[in-house]
Amino acid sequence: MIGCTKEKVDRIPLGSHLDDWFGDDFVLSRIVAFGYPRIPLSKEYVLVAVQGEINAVIDKYSCPHPHFVISSIARGDFSGGPVISEYDFLLGVLTEPLADGDQALENGFASVISIEPLLVLLHENNIRIRENHNILYGITDDSSS
Known about the structure:
12% of the residues lie in helices and 29% in strands. It is of the alpha+beta class.
């Protein structure tokens, strides 16, 4: 995906990596993150894309799901934005900068929550995605998905 010409599509394929299925498998793989940060001197907000790589996979003590630590600067207003893997699927959602106390956001790490909470949320709201049918069944034990 990164550095290659791909056909344009109107959706982002969801990943099928569940929390307990991966360890450091994605470390040093490339990503693209998207957000709408405030750009100084700009008249309006625009979609900004940044490239980076996965530097670590961590378990936060405040969240039950793994987070990917990415090399992109932890800027504000990227939270909630998609992070796409070099393997052409949604890796997760950018959640927050990981910084100590009053440390500047730019000095912290950007954190991306894994895809499993999104898959569960889709299931709980009866949103069916054909490509992820078997994955949802695996995490919900619900044969109706």
